[in-house]
């Protein structure tokens, strides 16, 4: 039997994520894409994509993984969270019946035919499509392609271990450091996300993102707590703080860029690499934490590598945690 479900009292208990949905005959779990058909876990959206595009790796965002490269990015439908501020709600909070399907071999071939370093599983939540992502990632690895996971991190440790084995990089969306925010706002819980970040940190090139929402998760104390947590794993983990804008069910006013810039300074007290996103023309350069020289200069998605030499700062020789 698959690791991701077990039979319980005539129903199916999905064990992929911490929700542990008990799914009756013909019904689906909270993610909408994992279904009970005749007492067996069915995956009616296996290989159903919501989007395909070639993206700059910086768009994921990943700033320390093959900077300046492009990656074939694929999205899905469904999600195991219910974020009322979701900026991709049109694909995360619905499924589309009868949509065209693909398979791992065709997806890997599509990536190989492009000038791509690999495949990014992104846009909506990829972990709820665990089986398809894992099958594709295994094949991509055999073809010499990189695998990138952009995720909310809401997955149980056993399937996460299998998935991370084939991932080269990941960006985890840490939405808050407040358990009440996770429970009330997005219908999830914080601790499993923190556990996933801890699990992923030694295995992949990891970066973390927080969407800063005024009045919700924008206190200096909360950002300091996130920075403390990440620094306890490694102060070299890149941390992205991004401006929110009103969408879906949220009418909270957009985040002022000055707020994100100030919170970035708070995070920099503990972390070596902190980046502000959606703040207009503000520079998001990567600096050497030892001597301060510019290592990578960024203007939007255009980059110029100026101070790196074989993984070290060309000015002071410090080792720099940038892959590729």
Q: Which key phrases capture this entry?
A:
3 domains, eight-stranded mixed β-sheet, 8 helices, 324 residues, alpha/beta, TIM Barrel, 24% strand, three-stranded antiparallel β-sheet, globular
How is this structure best described in words?
- The structure is a single chain.
- The chain has helices at 89-92, 104-112, 130-142, 157-164, 179-185, 191-200, 220-233, 257-267; strands at 5-8, 11-14, 22-23, 35-37, 40-42, 51-56, 70-75, 118-122, 146-151, 169-173, 205-212, 239-243, 274-277, 286-287, 294-299, 302-305, 308-309, 312-313.
- By secondary structure, it is α/β, with parallel strands linked by helices.
- It has 3 domains: 1-44, no CATH class; 47-283, TIM Barrel, CATH 3.20.20.70; 285-324, no CATH class.
- The strands form 5 sheets. Strands 6-7-8-9-10-11-12-13 form an 8-stranded mixed sheet.
- The chain is globular and about 65 Å long.
Number of strands: 18
- Main beta sheet, described? 8 strands, mixed
Instruction: Tell me the name of the CATH homologous superfamily of the largest domain.
Output: Aldolase class I
C-alpha end-to-end distance: 39 Å
Mean pLDDT: 95
Give start-end ranges of low-pLDDT stretches: none
CATH class of the largest domain: Alpha Beta
SSE succession: EEEEEEEHHEHEHEHHEHEHEEEEEE
- Judging by the overall fold, what is the CATH architecture of the largest domain? Alpha-Beta Barrel
Q: Order of strands side by side in the largest beta sheet?
A: 6-7-8-9-10-11-12-13
**Percentage of β-strand residues:** 15-25%
Tell me the Rg in angstroms: 20 Å
């Amino acid at each position: 039997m698959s690791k991701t479900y077990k039979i319980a009292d005539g129903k199916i208990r999905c064990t992929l994520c911490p929700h542990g949905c008990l799914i009756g005959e013909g019904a689906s779990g909270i993610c909408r894409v994992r279904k009970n058909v005749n007492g067996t876990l069915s995956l009616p959206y296996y290989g159903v994509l919501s989007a395909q595009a070639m993206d700059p790796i910086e768009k994921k965002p990943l700033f320390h993984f093959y900077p300046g490269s492009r990656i074939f990015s694929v999205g899905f439908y469904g999600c195991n969270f219910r974020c009322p501020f979701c900026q991709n709600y049109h694909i995360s909070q619905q499924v589309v019946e009868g949509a065209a399907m693909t398979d791992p071999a065709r997806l890997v071939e599509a990536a190989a035919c492009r000038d791509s370093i690999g495949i990014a599983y992104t846009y909506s939540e990829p972990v709820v499509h665990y089986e398809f992502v894992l099958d594709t990632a295994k094949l991509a690895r055999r073809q010499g392609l990189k695998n990138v996971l952009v995720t909310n991190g809401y997955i149980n440790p056993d399937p996460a271990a299998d998935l991370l084995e084939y991932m080269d990089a990941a960006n985890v969306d840490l939405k808050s450091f407040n358990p009440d925010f996770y429970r009330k706002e997005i219908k999830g819980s914080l601790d499993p996300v923190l556990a996933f970040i801890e699990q992923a940190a030694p295995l992949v090139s990891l970066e973390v993102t927080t969407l800063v929402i005024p009045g919700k998760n924008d206190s200096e104390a909360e950002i300091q707590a996130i920075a403390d947590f990440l620094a306890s794993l490694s102060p070299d983990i890149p941390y992205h703080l991004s401006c929110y804008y009103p969408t879906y069910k949220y009418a909270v006013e957009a985040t002022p860029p000055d707020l994100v810039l100030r919170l970035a300074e708070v995070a920099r007290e503990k972390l070596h690499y902190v980046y502000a996103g959606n703040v207009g023309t503000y520079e998001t350069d990567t600096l050497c934490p030892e001597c301060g020289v510019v290592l990578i200069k960024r203007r939007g998605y255009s980059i110029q590598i100026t101070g790196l030499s074989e993984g070290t700062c060309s000015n002071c020789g410090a080792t720099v945690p940038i892959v590729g």
